[in-house]
Amino acid sequence: MFKKSDLFFLLAVMISFFVSGYLWFSGQRMDGIFTAIWVPSILCFGIYFKLMVIGAKKDE
To answer: How many angstroms from the chain centroid is the CA of residue 54?
Structure first.
């Protein structure tokens, strides 16, 4: 179901999420917000590559 690349993207999302939460609650609010913006960006990047793989398989 999940490929290794999917797990790497999810790991990057989780790390970014926890780092942003840590920064937010440690008082570095602007850094926490900046890091929180990475979460949807990484997810969109992963979805894009997943769709590219599906499209390449469909063309074969």
So the answer is: 19
Domain residue ranges of the chain, discontinuous segments joined by +: 4-59
Quickly list H helices, the chain.
4-25, 29-36, 38-59
pTM, entire model: 0.81
- Look up tokens 């949807």; give the residue: 40
Residue 52 DSSP SS3: helix
Which structure tokens are listed for 59? 């063309």
Half-sphere exposure of 7 (CA within 13 A, CB side): 4
Task: Tell me the pLDDT tens digit for each residue of 38-50.
Answer: 999 999 999 999 9
